[in-house]
Specification:
213 residues; mainly alpha; Arc Repressor Mutant, subunit A; Tetracycline Repressor, domain 2; 2 domains; 76% helix; 0% strand
Length: 213
């Protein structure tokens, strides 16, 4: 008689091995250049087993991106000393902005992977159905932002005159674009003593100043 608990554990271990091997190879090389055979070899399992979990490379790439962002989000969320309920809207916004700086200082490989992921998805013309797990994970950030925005309506620590979606999109794109460019080296450095973290904190300060009351 099969042990369902053991089977589930074995499946989870294999899946984790596939995701880990994929992420390592994608960041070492590039998403386009890595084959399913290479991933299977790195994971320690057969390629036929890999295809049972992911029927094509695109679905595997999306799973890697989803898991990577999920792990970072959970880890950073767990670093809070207060719950969002205990924080003011501007404190939540500060925490949100700070997450981008932490992402840059501690997870440059993740930013490089994300850059490759976006290019891969656009060039592969991936359908919305395949992207659903990734979009759901990213949507969790929007939900947290929504909670902050609703709190701002009562505690008056942030402006709420601009549409919520506009504020979220502007903040996300400005900070993510900046840290990605730093991570991949697409920045102008005026001197050898250039401090990119200092510049990112200045950018964070500008956004806080723009939306704080």
């Amino acid at each position: 008689m099969r042990n369902k608990e053991k089977d589930a554990r074995d499946m989870a271990e294999k899946n984790a091995a596939f995701l880990k091997a994929s992420y390592e190879l994608f960041t070492e090389k590039s998403i386009e250049s890595v084959s399913m055979e290479e991933i299977a070899l790195r994971s320690g399992y057969g390629v036929a087993t890999l295809y049972r979990y992911y029927t094509n490379k695109t679905r595997l790439v999306i799973a890697v991106a989803t898991e990577t962002w999920k792990k970072f989000s959970e880890k950073y969320k767990g670093s809070r000393k207060q719950t969002f309920d205990e924080m003011s809207a501007v404190q939540i916004f500060d925490f949100f902005l700070e997450s981008f700086i932490i992402l840059y200082t501690d997870h440059k490989d993740m930013l490089k992977f994300n850059q490759m992921f976006n290019i891969y998805i656009q060039s592969s013309k991936v359908g919305l159905e395949d992207l659903e797990p990734y979009e759901e994970m990213i949507g969790s950030l929007a939900k947290q932002f929504h909670m902050m925005y609703e709190k701002a309506k009562t505690d008056k620590t942030l402006k709420t005159d601009a549409p919520e979606e506009e504020v979220f999109s502007t903040t996300l794109h400005i900070m993510l674009a900046a840290i990605t460019r730093y991570a991949v080296g697409l920045v102008y450095k005026p001197s050898a003593n250039f401090d990119e973290v200092k510049e990112l904190r200045h950018l964070k300060g500008l956004l806080l100043k723009e939306y704080s009351l």
